[in-house]
């Protein structure tokens, strides 16, 4: 990890504008303490609260968190139920905290497969926070990038078949408008916790030019300081987007 101090009030203009995080290591955090995995997920939910608040204080305009993937359904049923319970609890209990942080919540992912009450809670939370403007907080639930890309492709193919558009007219902008992240800037910085160095089907299209920062800290221990250090690392990088740079 970089050791250089970050200015107390980082200049948001220097970016990143959008930070995405793969929250990993809840299970290992619990195992190291002889606790059930759900205890790690609970502490992970506390870390979500800390990081949402910290990101707002650091002036990050968009924060996207990977909470439950389309592949996470393969986990043992009791763990899936625990995670769904935590997400349900978060959507119901965090509205006041989100409001205090000026956070607009959006849940990214397939609604199919989620319990009806969670789908209702998502709509309620998104509606209640819709006019907040300080930070956009996106939580990916039942999200998988390959699935997202396939669905976008299918929808464009249907529009071509219906004669609404021609295949030649499909470009990056029209493709992006079919993704679940339509309207959001691409992540500038992608952080993964717990020492793993994989993308794991997260925002595959959107992270084409994201700077990747892998940190050893397990997600339940992650906080504003770790976020600041990742931003320091991000600002040291030279982004070239396939060009030759300065
Ligand atoms: C990865 O750790 C974490 C998850 C699959 C779930 C993330 C969920 C939370 C942080 C809590 C609930 C979220 C919200 C938004 C309230 P892992 O279980 O794969 O850990 P391991 O690799 O150490 O086993």
Question: What would the keywords be for this entry?
Answer:
Undecaprenyl pyrophosphate synthetase; 246 residues; alpha/beta; binds farnesyl diphosphate; disordered N terminus; single chain; six-stranded parallel β-sheet
Tell me the radius of gyration: 18 Å
**Mind telling me which CATH architecture this is?**
3-Layer(aba) Sandwich
- What is the strand content? 5-15%
Report the strand count.
Answer: 6
List the ions, cofactors and other small molecules found in this model: farnesyl diphosphate
Largest sheet: 6 strands, parallel
Q: Which segments are poorly predicted (pLDDT under 50) over 5 or more consecutive residues? A: 1-10
The ordered H/E elements are EHHEHHEHEHHEEH
Query: Strand pairing plus helix content: what structural class?
Result: alpha/beta
Q: What global shape is seen?
A: globular
CATH fold description:
Undecaprenyl pyrophosphate synthetase
Instruction: Report the end-to-end length measured between terminal Cα atoms.
Output: 25 Å
Tell me the name of the CATH class. Alpha Beta
The order of strands across the largest sheet is 3-4-2-1-5-6
Q: How many separate domains make up the residues?
A: 1
- Please count the helical segments: 8
Going by CATH, the homologous superfamily would be Decaprenyl diphosphate synthase-like
Describe it for me?
The protein has 246 residues and is α/β, with parallel strands linked by helices. The chain has one domain: Undecaprenyl pyrophosphate synthetase. It is 41% helix and 15% strand. It is built from eight helices and six strands, in the order βααβααβαβααββα. The chain has helices at 26-32, 37-57, 77-93, 95-100, 116-129, 145-161, 172-176, 224-236; strands at 18-22, 62-69, 103-108, 135-143, 189-192, 211-214. It has a six-stranded parallel sheet with strand order 3-4-2-1-5-6, with helices on both faces. Helix 5 (116-129) links the parallel strand 3 and strand 4 (135-143). Helix 1 (26-32) packs across helix 2 (37-57), helix 2 (37-57) runs parallel beside helix 3 (77-93) and helix 3 (77-93) packs parallel to helix 5. The longest helix is centred in the N-terminal third of the chain and has 21 residues, at 37-57. The chain is globular, with a radius of gyration of 18 Å. The chain starts with 17 loop residues before the first strand and ends in a 10-residue tail after the last helix. Bound molecules: farnesyl diphosphate. Residues 23-28, 41, 44-45, 48, 65, 67, 72, 83, 86-87, 90, 139, 194, 219 line the site of farnesyl diphosphate.
């Amino acid at each position: 990890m970089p050791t250089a101090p970050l200015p107390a009030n980082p200049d948001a203009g220097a970016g990143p504008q959008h930070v995405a995080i793969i929250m990993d290591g809840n299970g290992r955090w619990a195992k190291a303490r002889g606790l059930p995995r759900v205890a790690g997920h609970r502490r992970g939910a506390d870390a979500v609260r800390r990081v949402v608040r910290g990101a707002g204080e650091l002036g990050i305009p968009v924060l996207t968190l990977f909470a439950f993937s389309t592949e996470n359904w393969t986990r043992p049923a009791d763990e899936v139920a625990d995670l769904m319970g935590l997400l349900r609890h978060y959507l119901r209990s965090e509205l006041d905290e989100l409001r205090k942080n000026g956070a607009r919540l959006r849940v990214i992912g397939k609604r199919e497969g989620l319990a009806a009450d969670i789908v209702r809670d998502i709509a309620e939370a998104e509606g209640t926070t819709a006019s907040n403007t300080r930070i956009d907080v996106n939580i990916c639930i039942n999200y998988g990038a390959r699935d997202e890309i396939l669905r976008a492709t299918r929808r464009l193919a249907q529009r071509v078949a219906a004669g609404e558009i021609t295949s030649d007219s499909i470009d990056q902008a029209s493709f992006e408008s079919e993704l679940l992240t339509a309207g959001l800037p691409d992540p500038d910085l992608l952080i993964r916790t717990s020492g793993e160095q994989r993308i794991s089907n997260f925002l595959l299209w959107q992270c084409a030019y994201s700077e990747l920062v892998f940190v050893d800290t397990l997600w339940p221990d992650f906080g504003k300081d770790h976020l600041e250090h990742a931003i320091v690392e991000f600002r040291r990088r030279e982004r070239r987007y396939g060009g030759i740079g300065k």
